[in-house]
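Hi P.,

Sorry for the delay on this. The queue was packed all week, but I finally got your sequence through. Input first:
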Amino acid sequence: MRLTHLSSLLLGTCLLSACGGSNDDSDTPTDGGTPPTSFDHQVIGTVVYQGAVAGAEVCVDFNQNASCETNEPSSIADAEGKYQIDWTSNVEMPVYDLVANWQQAAETATKPALLKAAFRTDALNTRAQSDNTQAVISMEGEGRLVALQEHGGEINALTNLEFQRVARMRAAGTTSLEIASQRALLAAMVLTIYERQGNPYKLSAEQSLAPEFIDTYRLHRHLEALIGDQLSDVLAVDDIMSMTRDQLRNLVEASGMNTQDYLNNDPMAIRFLVNNALLAAGYIETPIDEKIMSYADWQVIKNHFFEDDQLHSDFTLAPAKLHSAFTLTYGTPDLTFIGSIIEDKVNGRVFDYREGEGTETPEACWNQELELWVGDDDKAYQAPEIRYIDNTLHTVYSGTFVPLTVEFTKYSGSGDEWQAVLSTTPPALKLGELSWPSQVYRYRIKQAADVMCRVQDEFITWPMPSHQDAEQLTTADVARLFWPAFYPDDTVIDEENKTIKVNITGQVETHQWSLITGPSDEPVLRVKQIDLPAAYADMVSADDYLIQGDKLIEVSIYEATDYMSKFGDYLNVSFDGNEDNFNQRFQQHLEAIVKGQQP
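Then the structure:
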């Protein structure tokens, strides 16, 4: 993936233009006289960092330690960032770097945590790590930029980037020829990354203030903070930046935020992108940090969450407005502990579906593409293969081709982040007192479209009124259909508002009906009770009836949902329930709480 085809060309250009030092004729007299014992030197240049840097102290760094010392010539940049340094020495062609220091307000950008990479052994930097990825502006507001002497006095963010790479190579004992080759390759990458022409390191104050330049530089520095000096290839960060620049910009644009605000959140999307680029370029063999799902993690999900015939390990907790209803599936899919919290008291018990308790009736779902109901083991239907991309599982709703994605967030079971999540759960459940498995996977589900299902075999139907026309349905028709024993004496019909009040042995219920279009593009009659207390309203779903000719079929419509809508405030987690016998320990913990015992 590296731009190696440009390396030899640029290296030749660099050497011909004296990238490694001056090719000026010697000052040695040709007449056989006494050679000079002192030489005059001058550097004229500009200091630029998001505009001209006025008042910067610029020095000639002879010992190349990236700092200014009292015996090194220096000058102060004027209001336009321009400076001039004159000095005399007994060295005809001195070797040096240029260092600019100044004081300003500290930058507010946050630095992301370094990726904990499992790098290839031959790519890992086993030498001493340098500190050359430090920010241009320190937390104390001290600014520093460095430039190699070949840039004619130009000191800016790009010369500083080059210096950081060269400093690493110097510390590693890299030969001068290899350093020149790598510098030529870096110059080509800088031209590509920053979409520049000509001299990649000549940057005016106006160019440094351009929003596109600033945003690209911020993205570049973010990748540098993520990868650091963990690879022996000193240009790895620049290689990845050149590969992913446009994708990085697209991520920022899609976020709706400015670049700095987006990066301050240390977005997982960038970690995924960097991970995939490092894998593609051969720098790493496994995911780059503990937040990214590995093959082993997906095996846990497959065995404990997704496969129906495996040992399920799954915990779901609803928000307080739904009485913190919770379910724990442990051991086999047939065993579920179901409970809730009402008036600070935890209620619950184990449901054993093997004994017919709460048995789920097999469903068939409407497949829009096949235009038929698809049930279990339907030969006409072949589900797409499950795909695992980054931290997201991609599949379809059973029996359909409606995309279903499950996004996982991976936590260390003993880590601070997971403890912070647990601190938001009801204290009565004492979830923070559990010793959790080494990894915990929180998930959120996204369903792309509505799905309609009915009982697979003996589904319930009702006869349509004699007109058999959905548009001619009346409130009286609906009351007659579903409350025949109470209509008309114990019902109150409101045709205008499509409501029915039913007096059931002294208890009055109010229901409202409407017509919607179902996933099969056919009319669906929806009936819902509307007089429930607010605390229970969200817990009761509507009853839906598909209208087909002379009959209505009872169906369930599972509405489309985004990751954060509808169920975004639920806590849904999976884990390896076999680790340290966690499934049984969790179930016993809940049993003890329900019984009022100390878990």
